[in-house]
Amino acid sequence: MHALDNISLDVTSGESIGIVGETGSGKSTLGKAILEILPPRTEVKGRLVFRGRELGQLDNARIRHIRGEEIALIFQDPMTRLNPLMTIEDHFVETIKAHQRVSRQEALARAEAALASMRVPESRISNYPHEFSGGMRQRIMIALALVLNPSLLVADEPTTSLDVIVEAQILEILEDLKRTYKMSLLLITHNLGIVAEVCDRVAVFYAGKIVEVGTVDDIFTRPIHPYTRLLLQSIIHLDTKELHSIDGAPPDLVSPPTGCRFHPRCPYAQAVCREKIPPLDQFRQDQLAACLFGKDFL
Amino acid sequence: MGESGCGKTTTGRAVLRLVDSTSGSIKFEGMNITTLKEERLRPLRTRMQIIFQDPHASLNPAMSIGRAIGHPLKIHGLAWQEEDVKSQVLTAMREVGLTPEEQLYDKYPSDLSGGQKQRAVIARAMILKPKLIVADEPVAMLDMSIRAKVLELMLDLKKKYNLTYLFITHDLATAKFLCDRIAIMYLGRIVETGPAKLIYNDPKHPYTKALLQAIPIPDPRRRARKVLPKGEVPDAVNPPMGCRFHPRCPAVLPTCGWEGRDFLDYLEERRTDLEKGKVDEANLGPLDLWKAKGLVAERQCRPENIAIITEYVRSILNDAPSPLSKAVERVKNVENRLVVQFRNPDPLAPKAVEGRLVECLLY
Amino acid sequence: MLPMLEKRRTLAGVMSWIGLGILVAFILIAVLAPIIAPYPAVGPNSQFLTPPNPLCGACAPPSFSHWMGTDNLGQDVFSRVLWGAQTSLEVMAIGVILALAVGFPVGLYSGYVGGSIDKAILLVMDSVYAFPGLLLAALVAAMLGKGPFNIGIAITVIYIPLYYRVTRNQTLSVREETYVEAARSLGAKPWTIMWVYIAYNVLITIPVIFALSAADAILTAAGLSYLGLGIQLPTPDWGLDLSVAQQFLTDGAWWTSFFPGLMIIILTVGLSFLGEGLNDLINPLLKKGRA
User: What is the model's pLDDT at position B179?
Assistant: First the structure.
């Protein structure tokens, strides 16, 4: 099964890019591929170039060094990444010491600063993960990811299990961090509203492929690919007057549709869409779409 | 509608008597069902149904779709003949768009997509021709492109059968589209309730305002800095005094229910500020010296220090946000204890404000 | 159960297949014993009129006419081993099926109803469970008397608490599933909820302990026979034959104990394979089903 197929994506320094897609679009697989935490026996083909170094050619020790220190990951459910038997303090000290030779005191000072920037009271540093609320835990996870000053933060559905208000709080923190530290952010989410609020660029995934990439303004105001258009229409927001949906369901990746993978659900599909795989072509400056009839949607 | 832990799901279950309520009353079609015995309740269940958030979990994995949808008929003895049940099930399946119905009839839940499973759940509820349907986040677990379809179906059914929905959701946008009236809940209380249009156009309760503002808008041209309430929903086991939203409320008044715990939270919050935190630590020592009890926050002091500490506490209270500092009745010394005493909160009751009920002292 | 075995060529799958193969082979042996056994199970079949080994009666080492030799009474060991499969499987089946038939419904009821009824049943079951199994079976066997059916019941008593426990615990977790609450909201009676919505979802965890307890039951039955509390001579039974044969072991007559013992080991290992294999296969499926 190909969870991802022919994906190519550039992220520039200080940029935040949103990866959007429905369940099974392969968006989470991408994040895991970047950090090489895919399940065993997963085959990854391709190149991952990080700041001019190709990660595939580095030895494991170097990759481990880059991962965590220069590329950090935060997940939907922080509890899966926090060890229930370790205090927050231990988490920080262990993380810092795994990557840098510093004294425990120095590590603690950094941990406190990182927690303070997330508005987590330092008095609670000796508490265990279960003693915190969901929002607090996610803040701790972010502080833990940021304590080593990574230049790329991969956030996989970081707010999905949180309530709207806490979600908005966390998103604000992420935006602030991006601005202060010139960090790049790869935000994986199914929530288009979040992308519109936080990201500079968006890549829309469908059935393991990128169907459209562009700036948020372009994608949200003048999308090209029919899937992007329909997906945007299907969002229910406060100004929704009429409901729209996409017929059918996302395809099975074990035997994906031939040609354009969206063709069975696409209202504009022609016979050729069933046969020819559409390339990701440039239609505007900074806007690429994988649709054979992209020109018609400009 | 409300955030997790506000009690919206429990409300829905209590209405259907799936959980028992400790006080109050539940009336259905004019009948008080609060303490009705389960045996007497069972026949009523044909007229009130529930749709759960997780369609996968609400279907028995061991029952085929057709059997699952038809089972309510057998439970209530409404149809016994296999063919009769089957024909009714097929009709229900067509009605909810679960087609091709003949082929799906013998499938198991694991063979269906999320959207199809939710349709099956709706068909199972509808087959009894209920009057009331409690829908607990019916589309929250579905993909965006499928949500609209399921909501449309629910609207169609409502029109066709004159259904009443109790729609439970955390998603304000969906509620706005679907509901005639809404009730905003926070920590087990309804804080604002009234016609949906009124509330969305001009929310009155600060919590409603905060919720509406927090929703991400899928339009990059309308990005704006938000004024968000701080912190998270506190533990419902021991909710805040007075208005339960007061510790987070951006429009809070001194009379909203400040209490000893709030002072401790204030001290803790100061510690996240590196400078103030250091000074506080030097002057006050560790936070766990303090105890909060109702309207009071207090700590033991050594006799020689008590004057200085009292003075320092007064100074940081002056530095506090004004609703908090004004809510303090007095800071006093009792024997060797330093006591911060808050004033009694003003009584809180739902008030009629511009066509809706609001539970807030601002009105 | 079988379709999921087909799909997986993992170690667990292979183990299950081997276990299942062994079990089926033994069932075939038991059923076909009257046809394939070269001699009757009881009575001297030795062609030797004068025992070649005076110390163990009419026993003779494996030969062309007696593949596994003969025992002290001149009975063909191979035939007795084949016939013995009947006795062992019969006792095992009675024991395990009865235990399931009692333990499962009681566990289901106890777990679903909860409260003080549950606590009371749990207390009784736990007291039985705390008893050493063989001792308990020996006690019951002594009370009921001999014969395969009574031994089966004696074994049942040991395993009822096991089935009860597993069923009850699984019921406790299935009871909290949304589809059970859904059934309640549909107006289903407790009986319907238990048997239509809960029972099957609890039952799918049973094959594992079914196989494992069957393996254990074989050993317990053999143990009872060995102690003289189980099957009585001249009925062919592995445990019994083993117990009779051991007195001649020092005289070099290894074949009379080796072959019955081997059968016990193979069947027990086969059933354990089946149980462990199913456990590995079913558990991930259960978890996946929840997700």
Answer: 92
pLDDT band per the 50, 70, 90 thresholds, residue A29: confident
Residues 6+ away with beta carbon under 8 Å from A163: A135, B3, B4, B170, B232, B233
Q: CA-to-CA distance for A103 and A97, rounded, in angstroms?
A: 8
Chains B and C share 3 or more Cβ pairs within 8 Å:
yes
The structural domains of chain B, with segments of one domain joined by +, span 8-179, 260-342
Q: What is the pLDDT of residue C288?
A: 47
Q: Beta strand pairing status for B48-51 and B132-136? A: parallel
Its domain, for residue C128, covers 27-290
* pLDDT of res. B83: 92
Q: Is residue C104 part of a domain?
A: yes
> For residue C16, is it within any domain?
no
Give me the number of domains chain C comprises.
1
Please indicate if any CB of chain C lies within 8 Å of the CB of B153.
no
Residues near C130 by Cβ (< 8 Å), separated by ≥ 6?
none
CA separation for the pair C239, C175 (Å, rounded): 42
Contact between chains at A246 and B4 (C-beta distance less than 8 A):
no
**Structural domains in chain A, sorted by start:** 54-187 (3.40.50.300), 203-297 (no CATH)
* Complex ipTM: 0.81
**Residue C276 forms part of a structural domain:** yes
Looking up residue C196, the CATH number of its domain turns out to be 1.10.3720.10
| Mean pLDDT for all residues in chain A | 86
* Structural contact between residues C284 and C278, judged by C-beta atoms closer than 8 angstroms: no
Residue with structure tokens 């220190």?
A: A69
Neighbours of chain C (3+ CB pairs under 8 A): B
Give the closest residue to B123 by CA, choosing from A49, C186, A32, A120: C186
Contact by Cβ (8 Å): B296, B331: no
- Residue B196: CB atoms within 10 A of its CB come to 18
Number of Cβ within 10 Å of residue A244's Cβ equals 17
Residue B19 near chain C (CB below 8 Å) = no
Residue B16, C-beta contacts closer than 8 angstroms, at least 6 positions apart: B45, B48, B50, B134, C185
- Contact of C164 with chain B, judged by CB distance below 8 Å, is answered with no
Residue A118, number of CB atoms within 10 A of its CB: 19
Q: Give the tokens for residue C264.
A: 């016990």
User: With an 8 Å Cβ cutoff, are B228 and A163 in contact?
Assistant: no
Distance from the B181 Cα atom to the nearest Cα atom in chain C, whole angstroms = 25
Q: How far apart are CA C137 and CA C151, in angstroms?
A: 8
| Token output for B56 | 């996968």
Q: Which of residues 55-114 of A touch B (CB under 8 A)?
A: 113
User: Topology of domain B8-179, per CATH?
Assistant: Rossmann fold (3.40.50)
Per-residue pLDDT band for C100 (boundaries 50, 70, 90) equals very high
CB contact C196 to B (< 8 Å): yes
Does C18 reside within a domain?
no
Task: State residue B328's pLDDT score.
Answer: 93
Residue-wise pLDDT for A185-224, tens only, equals 999 998 898 999 999 999 999 998 899 999 999 999 999 9
